[in-house]
From TrEMBL:
Entry keywords, A to Z: Exonuclease, Hydrolase, Nuclease
Gene3D superfamilies listed in its UniProt record: Tetratricopeptide repeat domain
Domain of life: Bacteria
PANTHER family in the record: EXONUCLEASE-LIKE PROTEIN, YPRB RIBONUCLEASE H-LIKE DOMAIN-CONTAINING PROTEIN
Pfam families per record: RNase_H_2 (PF13482)
Transmembrane segments: none
Signal sequence region: none
Chain ranges of the YprB ribonuclease H-like domain: 126-296
Region called Disordered, residue ranges: 1-28, 410-459
Name this polypeptide is given: Hypothetical cytosolic protein exonuclease
Taxonomic source organism: Syntrophus aciditrophicus (strain SB)
Length: 459
């Protein structure tokens, strides 16, 4: 495409009829100048100005005029630092920040599936969250704001935000994070394993700096939160967990999707006002991490008496215990849930307990649970099936097993067609076994072989 064609596309002019080649060079240059002038003179009336007029730009306040922060320098340059010091008694929803000081580190290690955390002091945690120039990651994405939080020696909770006022200040921010992380023992994030930590690792590589985060054990709250509460929350976003679990409701919070544009506007205009929402959003994320850590760890020691948790949460925590190989702890939580007023949670807990007893060959305990469940609900498919299998394969009481299956078949409780086929197959098999046992002279009730007494025993 020629330059004239490109100009015609930009100006929107229609293509003129072909002219003879007799046009001289002066006329061509004149035509090009006219077209360029037309492009330059165009000013769309509805396009916002990124740069305010020079007079107004001088009147914009500095960051330190609006925030409790200051410029900080290190060997790699300067950046802006904002500190927010919170009393330990301050709350984030239903949780106080100083509850973190007495955090059960065994529970924390369980959440992270990392036994190293059980040996740490709860106050050596580093809570971390980033705000970036993009949500997709990649080498072109910059973490322009790194928010961190930790407990000070006096019990207050410090939120420190490291802000790169331009791309050139990134290295100074990363170096400052190095210094902070060196004094901490473990890391707490939300979805950090998938996003924040990977992004920062890339930025450290590109800036040829050592990554201080790789050596820290990492508790990513997203994964245990999803496992413990996913059964009763609509999604696993941090703001959803805050509302559903912590009863904390953000007012006029900035959506994460708007954060990158706020930063790009700052780079163009140097107007700090739109950034205030970004700093507030990041600060709330940090305090939410602390409160959520307390809430997640607390469920393992609730003993079923804490109003902060639903009985179904105890069942989810028990399943996590089982996955981590902590069967006794799982049974304890299931016992608590089995005594709850929630019929659904109680049913799930007793079913799970019976299977644990079955696995451990504690048949007496398992049978008691199955019989209790069937007594409460004669159409309990789980209890009927387990008892039928128990009598068929353990006691040899084929008649009782057939009665249990026959009872389910006659009442026909709602079930998928495939499940019905399985019950029909079980019924047919038991019928056949009972008939064969009678032919062999075997007692269907006891499984013992019948015998004819000798003549001297008759009468």
């Amino acid at each position: 495409m020629s330059l004239k064609d490109r100009l015609r596309r930009l100006t929107g002019e229609e293509e003129s009829p072909a002219k003879p080649d007799t046009t001289d060079r002066a006329e061509q240059l004149s035509d090009l100048r006219r077209r360029l002038d037309a492009i330059v003179s165009r000013r769309p009336g509805d396009t916002p100005e990124f740069f305010p007029p020079g007079r107004l730009r001088k009147e914009l306040p500095a960051l330190q005029d609006l925030l409790t922060g200051c410029e900080e320098c290190n060997d790699w340059g300067a950046f802006f630092r904002i500190d927010s010091l919170l009393e330990g008694t301050e709350t984030h929803g239903i949780r106080r920040l100083n509850e973190l000081e007495t955090l059960d580190m065994e529970a924390t290690a369980l959440l992270a599936n990392d036994t190293r955390l059980s040996d740490f002091d709860s106050r050596t945690a580093l809570f971390l969250d980033t705000e970036t120039t993009g949500l997709a990651g990649g080498t072109g994405t910059l973490a322009f704001l790194v928010g961190v939080g930790w407990f000070e020696a006096d019990g207050r909770f410090l939120v420190r935000q490291l802000f790169a006022r331009s791309f050139e200040e990134e290295r100074a921010v990363l170096a400052a994070l190095q210094k902070i992380a060196a004094s901490k023992r473990y890391l707490v994030t939300f979805n950090g394993k998938s996003f924040d930590i990977n992004l920062l690792a890339t930025r450290y590589i590109l800036n040829r700096l050592d990554n201080p985060l790789t050596a820290l054990p990492h508790l990513d709250l997203l994964h245990p939160a999803r496992r413990l509460f996913g059964h009763r929350i609509s999604n696993s976003r941090l703001i959803t967990l805050e509302e559903a679990l912590l009863k904390f409701y953000r007012e006029d919070d900035l959506p994460g999707s708007e954060v990158p544009m706020r930063y790009f506007n700052w780079l163009r205009s140097r107007d700090p006002h739109p950034l205030l929402d970004v700093f507030r959003h990041n600060r709330l994320d940090i305090t939410a991490l602390a409160a959520l850590t307390v809430h997640l760890a607390g469920i393992f020691n609730s003993n079923g008496h804490c109003s902060h948790y639903d009985p179904s949460d105890l069942c989810a925590a028990a399943r996590l215990f089982l996955d981590r190989g902590r069967q006794l702890s799982a049974c304890s939580l299931y016992e608590d849930a089995s005594r709850s007023a929630s019929r659904t949670a109680s049913l799930e807990a007793r079913q799970a307990l019976s299977l644990i007893h079955k696995k451990n060959s504690q048949w007496e305990k398992a049978v008691i649970l199955w019989e209790d469940l069937l007594k409460e609900n004669p159409n309990d498919l789980f209890a009927a099936e387990e008892l039928a299998k128990w009598h068929e394969h353990r006691t040899g009481n084929l008649e009782r097993a057939l009665q249990l299956v026959d009872g389910i078949m006659k009442t026909s409780p709602p079930m998928p067609e495939q499940q019905k086929d399985a019950w029909r197959h079980r019924f047919s098999r038991l019928q056949t076994r009972c008939e064969k046992a009678k032919q062999r002279g075997v007692d269907d009730k006891t499984g013992a072989e019948k015998r004819t007494p000798p003549d001297n025993e008759v009468g």
